[in-house]
C-alpha cells in the first residue's frame, strides 16, 4: 500500500543548471550591493574631508581677516609663489603671514624685521595649502603698491587654494575680501 506515493515524486529536486543559475543571480545581487556600500562609504569620506577642509579654511580666513583689518603699515611683501608673505604692522606690533611649503604660518613680535629668514619659527595657521595670494587695491580699483601711502589701501583680496591629493578631493579655493579699517578710508 502506497499512501504517500501521490505526494512524493522520486524525481523531484533541483537540477544542476537551476542551482548554478541561482548562484549566479545571488552573486550578481551581492556584488551590486557590495559596490553600493563601497560607493556610499567613499561618498561619506569625501564629504567628511570636504567639510573638514572647509572648516579649517573658514577659521584661517577669519583670522587673516581680523589681522588684515588692523593693519597700520605694510613693511614688506613678496607676492611670488611658492612662498609668498606679508610683513605688516598691527596695533599689537609687527607681524607676518607666510606660506611655508604646504602650510600657512603666522609670525608675531618681529621687531623691526622686513624679511622672513627663518620660516620654521612661525605658528601654523592652516596646512594643505597649495597657493596663497594677497591682492591689494586702492579705492579707485587700481592695484596698490608698497610705494603707495597706506591710507590709499582700501581692499585686500585673500585667496587660499587647498589640496587633498591623497583622497582625490582635489583643489578647493577659498577667498575673502578685507577692508582695512586703520588706513584712513
Question: How would you describe this structure to a colleague?
Answer:
This protein is of the alpha+beta class. It is 29% helix and 32% strand. It has one helix at 16-69; strands spanning 71-78, 85-90, 93-100, 103-107, 123-126, 129-138, 153-163, 171-178. It has a five-stranded antiparallel β-sheet with strand order 1-2-3-4-5, with helices on one face. Strand 3 (93-100) and strand 4 form a beta hairpin. The longest helix has 54 residues, at 16-69. It is rod-shaped, with a radius of gyration of 31 Å.
Number of strands: 8
Overall pLDDT confidence: 85
Structural class: alpha+beta
Secondary-structure element pattern, one letter each: HEEEEEEEE
Unreliable runs, pLDDT <50, ≥5 residues? none
- Major sheet: order of its strands? 1-2-3-4-5
Helix content: 25-40%
Amino acid at each position: 500500500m502506497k499512501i504517500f506515493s501521490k505526494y512524493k515524486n522520486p524525481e523531484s529536486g533541483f537540477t544542476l543548471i537551476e542551482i548554478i543559475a541561482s548562484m549566479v543571480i545571488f552573486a550578481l545581487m551581492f556584488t551590486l550591493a557590495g559596490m553600493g556600500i563601497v560607493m556610499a562609504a567613499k561618498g561619506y569620506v569625501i564629504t567628511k574631508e570636504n567639510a573638514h577642509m572647509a572648516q579649517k579654511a573658514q577659521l584661517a580666513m577669519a583670522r587673516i581677516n581680523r589681522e588684515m583689518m588692523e593693519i597700520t603699515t605694510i613693511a614688506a611683501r613678496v607676492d611670488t609663489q611658492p612662498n609668498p608673505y606679508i610683513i605688516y604692522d598691527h596695533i599689537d606690533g609687527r607681524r607676518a603671514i607666510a606660506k611655508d611649503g604646504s602650510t600657512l604660518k603666522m609670525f608675531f613680535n618681529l621687531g623691526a624685521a622686513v624679511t622672513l629668514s627663518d620660516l620654521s619659527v612661525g605658528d601654523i595657521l592652516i596646512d594643505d595649502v597649495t597657493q596663497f595670494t594677497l591682492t591689494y587695491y586702492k579705492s579707485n580699483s587700481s592695484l596698490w603698491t608698497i610705494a603707495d601711502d597706506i591710507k590709499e589701501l582700501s581692499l585686500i583680496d585673500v585667496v587660499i587654494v587647498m589640496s587633498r591629493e591623497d583622497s582625490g578631493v582635489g583643489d578647493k579655493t577659498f577667498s575673502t575680501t578685507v577692508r582695512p579699517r586703520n588706513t584712513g578710508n
